[in-house]
Specification:
single chain; alpha/beta; Rossmann fold; 2 domains; six-stranded parallel beta sheet; three-stranded antiparallel beta sheet
Length: 252
């Protein structure tokens, strides 16, 4: 058991479960750039789609003016299937048949969103490896719960040197399903042998915090390192911190 500080909140916590994108790694550096490349590939199939580039980006979840992800958009909280559907809807509304639109969107978006990231596509949000090492040294188990699939998640953790610190991992393609359903978090706590009353869930999206609430975790911790701001996250959180590196071990 260890005492952890999350801003002005101090709790005895035995397992900290982290979201991945926007919490541990820079979301825009990986996924917003991938989204832009995916949309450009979609346009390349039919050059007349170029006029819809801004609409496609914004509908999937990237601000075309800034290149940054849009909070609570399909790109941020949805799945590949949902991103495909919203892209296809834009094409359908511009006069393409639904069959043409869906097949084209799936064919072009999947290689960009489903493939495992390369090391040069990843950037951690501070010294995440150092944080994980401190938690483990204090006897705190580390979990990761993401709506990404297992292939990409395991590659990410491996590239960043984080895999060796992670006790329990839950992904959207596991049988437990995706956040905000609580089953993945419940399963991670069970795998780590930790009661939910000693689990903190940390994430940058509403879905992460709702997952914590539904599972009955001790703490729902919001981080501002993703694309959502304090106004969006605070109503769902027990505490809001700037980034995961603000978590402190203050005693065992």
């Amino acid at each position: 058991m260890a005492r952890l500080r999350f801003a002005d909140v101090i709790r005895n916590i035995d397992l900290v479960v982290f979201d991945k994108d926007g919490t541990l790694i820079d979301f825009d550096f990986t996924w917003s750039r991938r989204c832009e490349r995916a949309v450009d590939a979609l346009i390349a199939e039919r050059p007349e789609r170029a006029a819809a580039r801004s609409v496609l980006l914004a509908t999937i979840g990237v601000d075309p003016a800034t290149g940054r992800a849009i909070a609570e958009s399909p790109l941020v909280v949805g799945s590949l299937a949902e991103a495909t559907i919203v892209a296809a809807t834009v094409l359908y509304q511009r006069g393409e048949t639904w069959t043409e639109a869906t097949s084209s969107a799936e064919r072009t978006l999947k290689p960009f969103f489903a493939s495992a990231p390369a090391a040069d596509e990843l950037r951690t949000l501070g010294d995440v490896a150092g944080l994980f090492a401190r938690l483990r040294a204090a006897g705190v188990a580390v979990g990761v719960l993401t709506n990404d699939d297992r292939l990409g998640t395991e590659a990410t953790l491996s590239h960043l040197g984080l895999a060796r610190h992670v006790t329990a991992l839950g992904c959207a393609d596991d049988r437990h399903g995706a956040k905000p359903e609580p089953h993945g978090l419940v399963a991670l706590a069970g795998a780590a042998g930790v009661p939910l009353a000693r689990v903190a869930m940390v994430g940058d999206a509403i879905g992460d915090l709702v997952t914590a609430r539904r599972a009955g975790a001790a703490l729902a911790v919001a981080v501002l390192s993703g694309v959502a701001d304090h106004t969006i996250l605070a109503p769902y959180a027990d505490v809001v911190i700037d980034a995961v590196t603000a978590i402190e071990v203050i005693g065992g």
